[in-house]
Amino acid sequence: METIKETKKALRLEKDGVRFWIQKRWIKDDGQLTPAGQKAFKEAKDQQAYNESLQALPGPVAWESDKAIGVDGFFLMARCDGEVDRVVRQRLFFPKSQITDSQVKGWLLTAKINEATDKAVIENEHFSVIDFSFENDF
């Protein structure tokens, strides 16, 4: 385990190729991680594995150009009073340079879903997102 950066209250460590932050109190006097530090390492390791993993494109291609592919995602939206009111379609665009054998990196898929969620909420200001799916099965 190697210290990459140190602040007043935290350490950025590298262990087994994984970089992660911990609070200084999460490291014992003998240099070993406390249970909280071990949990932080495991979560960082799992997140890194997901970010680097390849995920299948989440649905049929709805749009395509020379440089990108668009896949439709559907949000189940509810009014502020909680009554389910509408299904909203958002197209998620993936650069072809990031697609390998119809698969994208996990971090990109997560970022695109978050981006589409933000857009759906902004465009439907008096509604909140109840659910999301790549199939319009609501």
From the structure above, extract its key features.
9 strands; 138 residues; alpha+beta; four-stranded antiparallel β-sheet; three-stranded antiparallel β-sheet
Query: Helical proportion?
Result: 25-40%
How far apart are the first and last residues' alpha carbons, in Å? 48 Å
Strand content: 35-45%
Q: Give the overall silhouette.
A: extended
Tell me about this structure.
- The chain has 138 residues and is α+β, with helices and mostly antiparallel strands.
- The chain contains 2 helices and 9 strands; from the N terminus they run βββαβββββαβ.
- The protein folds into 2 domains: 2-52, no CATH class; 56-133, no CATH class.
- The strands form 3 sheets. Strands 5, 6, 7 and 9 form a 4-stranded antiparallel beta sheet that branches. A 3-stranded antiparallel beta sheet has the order 1-2-3.
- Strand 1 and strand 2 (10-15) form a beta hairpin.
- The mean pLDDT is 92.
